[in-house]
Amino acid sequence: MSQRNLRVNVLVKQEISQLLHTRFQGQTVFITITDVSVSPDLRNGRVYYSVIGGGEEKLKSEKFFRQNAQEIRFQLGKRIVLKYLPLLKFIYDPSIKRGVELVDLMQQVSEDETPPEQKQE
Question: Is 117 contained in some domain?
């Protein structure tokens, strides 16, 4: 991946995050943009997001992005200047949820392996 593509990815991620948490603040409190991947020709982009909460928030976020994808792209075009403004596809990223589950499992294993005399203290 070229330096230019990396810079574009970071810029798009920052601008979308800022846009979501200013213009759409009430609807996107539980959404975090985790990564952006724009194609080298700048025509397509994937925006990965995670959701704080359960399945209900995930469904709300999917509905939000379906309804507001064009508005987000339009506002993004006002904020950054690129030769082509990428078509954005919003994709749920479950990696943070899996990471939290793994940490919980590691803590359970750690507690199970602690000798009984150390648990009393």
Answer: no
What's the token pair of residue 61?
């976020």
Mean pLDDT, the chain, whole residue set: 87
What is the distance between the alpha carbons of residues 42 and 19, in angstroms, rounded to a whole number?
20
Helices within the chain (DSSP H only) = 3-22, 55-79, 95-113, 116-119
Number of domains in the chain: 1
pLDDT at 91 over 60: yes
Return phi, psi of residue 93, to 5°.
-115, 105
CATH number at residue 36: 3.30.300.20
How many Cα atoms within 13 Å fall on the side-chain side of residue 30?
Answer: 15
Write down the pLDDT at residue 119: 56
Task: For residues 73 and 39, give the distance between their C-alpha atoms in angstroms, rounded to a whole number.
Answer: 15
